[in-house]
Amino acid sequence: MTLRPLTLLICAVPGLLAANVQAETHAAHEHGVAELNLAQVESDILLEINSPAHNVFGFEHPPHSETEKDMIKQRLQQIKTEPLVTFNPEANCQQQSALIDNPFHAKHEHEHEHEHEHEHEHEKSGHTHKDVHIEYTYRCQNPQALSSLDLQNLFQHWPQLETVRAQWLLSDQQSGGTLSRKQPSISFK
Question: What residue range is the signal peptide (predicted)?
Answer without folding.
Answer: 1-23
